[in-house]
Each structure stands twice: as C-alpha cells, then as structure tokens.
Design a protein that fits this description.
Elements (H helix, E strand, L loop, with lengths): L2 H6 L2 H5 L3 H20 L5 H9 L3 H12 L4 H11 L2 H9 L7 H9 L3 H7 E3 L2 E2 L1 H25 L11 H16 L3 H17 L7 H20 L1
Length: 227
C-alpha cells in the first residue's frame, strides 16, 4: 500500500486493528502502576514515568532495580540495555519517516514493539499512519492504565492474581504468529526462542529478550546473505 493510499483509508479501518494493542497496554499499565505503588513510588511518579518514558520493558526493569535498592546508575543502565532494541527497529523504519524534522522525531517517539509490528507491511515497508495512530492510542492506554493501577494500588494487590502480567506476552504471541509467513520467519523465531530458553535461567529479566533479538538479527542477516 502506498503512503497516499494509506492516507485515504478510513480512520476507522486504521484504528480497528490497533484497539487490542491499546487495551493490552492499558492492562499492562495497570500492573505496572500497582507494582510501582507497592515499592513506595506513590501515585504521581509512575504516571509521569509512563507519560515520558513510554517503555514497558524499561519501566519494569527500573522498578525491579529500585525494588532491590539499586542505584540510579543501575536504573539507567538497565533501561538503556532493555531499550537497545529500538536502535535496530529504528534502522528498519527510518526510510519510511518522511516530512519535516519535527514530524520525523514525533513519529519516531511513537515507535513501540506493538506499533512497529502492526505498521509493518512486509518487504521493509511500513504504514506510517498506522504507526502514528497505534503509538498515540498505546500511549494513552499505557498512561491511563498506570494511573488507574497506581490509584487502586493496594486493592489490586498482586497483578498476577488477575492475569494482568500475562496480557502483553499473550498479545505479542498473536503479533508474532501474524509475521510467521515463511520458512525463514519460522527459523528466525526458533532462534529467538532457543536463545531465550537458554539464557532465562542464568541472566537477569529482560536480558534474554535483548540477546534473543540480537541473535535473530544476526541470523536474519546471515540467511539474507545466503539467498
């Protein structure tokens, strides 16, 4: 689909596939807000964090470090390591970022795992309108969920009791399945799964996903070079 054709597509058709993503962000945001309150961050701090940082992996990593009395440098280092994958994602989507510098920066800030995935059209093509709508709705869902989770705090208790901690992983399994359209894609997914399974018992949370993504990228480059 060309960019001009995408702009003519009815907004409702663009929003429809994005709504489940925003709902998952809302549920995950509630879990994050409740966890943040449980370690003593209060209500305002996690909401501001969600609005400005807008990265579930980095925020959960920061909460894990703070919960164990980690230093500020440990928090920053953890967040930077978990968000390193955006360097790879940014290189894939950079050619599709057109317009003024401010427009490109604004859209780049809306790149998340979910918005990047739903905007992908195959063959290195991305629908920027879908990415923008997905990013904005997910930002609203994530921040609103964080606020509600923080306010309810003690009433929610352990988010795992309600399955809120599983909402995002299950949703991403659905996104992954939609991308498995070839033998090569299945092979790369298998590399990622093997890397996570091998590293999870021995490394801190978040690191297996980061290294699995790097392993998948290297494997994809090797397979591509052999074609």
């Amino acid at each position: 689909m060309t960019e001009r054709a995408a702009e003519r597509e009815p907004l409702g058709r663009v929003v429809r596939p994005v709504v489940p993503l925003a709902v998952a962000d809302f549920a995950d945001g509630m879990a994050f807000g409740a966890l943040a309150v449980s370690i003593g961050l209060g209500v305002l701090a996690p909401v501001v964090m969600s609005l400005l940082v807008f990265s579930g992996s980095a925020q959960y990593g920061a909460i894990a470090v703070l919960g164990h009395d980690g230093s500020l440098w440990a928090v920053v280092g953890t967040a930077a390591a978990l968000n390193a994958r955006y360097l790879l994602m940014g290189t894939t989507i950079a050619p599709a970022l057109t317009g003024s510098p401010w427009s490109r920066v604004g859209r780049a800030l809306l790149i998340t795992d979910g918005s990047w995935a739903v905007a992908h059209r195959g063959g290195g093509r991305y629908d920027m309108r879908v990415l923008t709508v997905a990013g904005l709705l997910c930002l609203c869902g994530w921040t609103a969920g964080t606020a509600l989770g923080a306010v309810l705090g003690g009433a929610i208790g352990d988010p795992a009791r309600f399955g809120l901690d599983a909402a995002y992983p299950v949703f991403f399994l659905g996104l992954l399945r939609s991308q498995l359209t070839s033998g090569r894609a299945w092979s790369l997914a298998a590399v990622g799964v093997a890397a996570v399974a091998g590293l999870a018992p021995f490394t801190p949370p978040g690191i297996p996903v980061l290294l699995a993504g790097a392993a998948g990228a290297v494997a994809g480059a090797v397979l591509g070079a052999r074609r």
